[in-house]
Amino acid sequence: MSDIVIRDVRRCYGLAHALDGVSFTADAGKVLALLGPSGSGKSTVLRLIAGLEPVDAGSIRVGDELLSSPQHTLPAEARRIGVVFQDYALFPHLTAAENVAFGLAGLPRTEREQSALNWLDRVGLKRRAGAYPHELSGGEQQRVALARALAPTPRAVLLDEPFSGLDSVLRAELRDATLQTLAEAKITTLFVTHDAEDALQAADKLVLLKAGRVLQEAAPRHAYDAPASLEVAAALGPINVFAGRVLNGAAATPFGTVFTPHLPEGAPVQVAVRAEALRLTPGSQARVLSVRPHGAHDLVRIEANGGAWRVLTPARTPLGERVDVTLDPAGAFVFQAD
Amino acid sequence: MTALDPTTASLESATPQSVARARRLKLRLDGVTAGAAIAAIICAAPAFAVLVLALWPSDNAAAFGGALLRDGAVGTLLLVVFGGGGAIALGAIAAWLVAACAFPGRRLLAWLLVLPLAAPSYVLAYAYAGMTWAGGASPVALTGIPGAAFVYAVGLYPYVYLAASAAFARRSSSAIEAARTLGAKPLDVFWRAALPLARPAIAAGGALALMEIAADYGAAHHFGLTTLSTAVFRAWYAHGEPQAALQIASALLAAALVLLWIERSARGRASYAGGLTRAHDTGRYALSPVAGIAAASFCTGLVVFGAALPLAWLARLALLHGQVEDILEPLGNSILLAMGGAAVTLVFATIIAVVARRAGAIGRIGAYAAGLGYAAPGAVIALGALALFGLARDAGWISGLSAALALTALVWAYAARFAAAGVQPIDAGLTRLSKGIDAAARTLGANAWRRLARIDAPIAAPSLAAAGLILFVEILKELPATLILRPFDFDTLAVRAYAYASDERLLEAAAPALLIFVAGLLPMLLLTRGVLKSAR
Predict the structure, then answer these.
(1) Which of A56, A71, A82 sits opposite B19 (nearest CB)?
(2) Is A14 exposed, middle or buried (0-12, 13-18, 19+ CB in 10 A)?
(3) Which residue among A28, A106, B191, B475 is least enclosed by CB atoms within 10 Å?
């Protein structure tokens, strides 16, 4: 198995750049998440890697083999790269088993059917082998699509917003099941999502995209703890932004200072403070506006110095009407403002 | 190292403009796409040949072509104005009544109103002629331009009716509701809201009706009129002037292309005007009993004159005077020819439709090429095919036009003429096939042919069957191209009906005309099912 290397890839539609010099590496046998808002070009990246569209500049390689360059596009049907499409794109006139068997055209008939059933079994759908796509639920369709993509033992599998069409309970369950299947298959995986939670929990590596450019390529923990920009920090969880200037090697916020050894004195900066990096204790510094449940946390909105802030506290933390606020510098990041 | 890498060398200079330019020059060619390109060339070649050869310099053709061309153009123009105008008015009124008013029998009439499309104009003309000649049931004889205009109006109004009722029912319903809440009376609503909103749809349907009128040979010939279509035949057969015939044919083709352009651009506007509001059953105007009966009578009248009366009269004459042995041979010829022609045309249409769906430039060009053939009247296509065979003979590639070659030319003409009629329903059937499904099949290693056989064709199977039936019937009804290209002594139903009618033997013409009419009703049943579905 080899890495997939994307280098300086550009792609235009009409006169607009959908991708503007994108580079990253998907490591062999690992799960990579492409995270970005809609219109960031993340689905375009998948289509280029799958060979469904040519690149306008740059290159895509698997190991030593060139898949795409402006002069050369290995056709999608010759790439051996599986894709799970956002709408699953199951063949409506074929049963689940026939869908999975479609990519096994080279095998003898019995072997093909056996292999298709095995793959359906691995995604827990053997008993639905004879069902047509319209008879399957959304989650079942997604699993058939996954089995279909994996059955021809591709070099990599690409998933486009694989969990987006599903409700939140099913989503977490299916995400774990999908990751389990992919881990067993030990296959290089790229998946596209706009959901930070999916990306952080499922991926070995994150690539954050915005407006056709890579903002950061890093392990989830690293991207979360050391975001390369304000946009990256905001993409991975709720933050508070505070504008100020560097004074004596530190940026001041209403709740404490953050050291900025690498920024020049007097430079205008923006400080991003993660919502969970603020700690609240009963006191007088800020006024509590509202407390709302937010999963295992409470989302508390407070007002201090004329500004509103968002804080995540452990659920059911007793707070009065006024609180004191302390800042954990590990969850605060300073970026030079333009 | 990067400087030496050809894949990054172009990065610096890759502006969106330069990329778009470079991409236009690159065409992906697989087997299916190449097939579509060949099909497109075959479909467009006859019409193209007419245009090119008509401009070829020739000394004595100008005078003949000039006089006949002028008279033919005037005749076609008159028929377009009176026959086409009548068809547009009748179709628009019927559509408004069915879409916006409540009257007895409305639901039934909504689909009966489509039936006149089953009969080609020449069959209607023979039926009405039979009525005035034999048995003398009709008080007035249909003759000349008024007669032809009447036949076109009652036979072709469904083109306008179909387009306009879709527009009335769907797109303009919210605007009509708005007009009603503002206090507009029914006639006000029709003139000031519904009609202007439906105008693009009416123009598109009207253009189709006018194309049929311009292309018609059988009815115009029967009424003894000089039109561009009949002038082509006269120049070719009576005057023996192929160059003049080609010149007249090119004028006819130009007129048809103008109409095609009107139809395309109007249809484009019709689909945008009014946005995407969902159809919902707007309250219909409850008509007073008298007005309701008037509306029902109007619609019934259209069905009677366009379909029921001619059909009944032909059936009567055929039962009284038809002889089985007389139509057995042309019936067999018609069925064989229509089956062969439909099979070839269906293959072309399928390949073009599939490639157009896959968003290939060649597919779209192919669809246009097929559209060119569909706009071109049968006489033009036949002349073009004949001219190309003539060139091949002059070049020594073939000797003379044997029966087999004539049939080949005829099937070619059918494919060129009707491929677009097949592309449309197949394309509609392929809407079930999202682009994602084609992409999924590609990522699973399926090449172009395997995708065509395993994905596109099975998914579009019902549409393919419908397209096959439509093509079969269209070819069965076709007259002018068949007249020009058929081998000697090879009669089809259409040719036999025409031959009898030309000899004023209208009693004998009834049986083959009736069979053509009945065959034409088959796809009507399919078509109206779709109409009913969209009306709900």
Answers:
(1) A56
(2) exposed
(3) A106
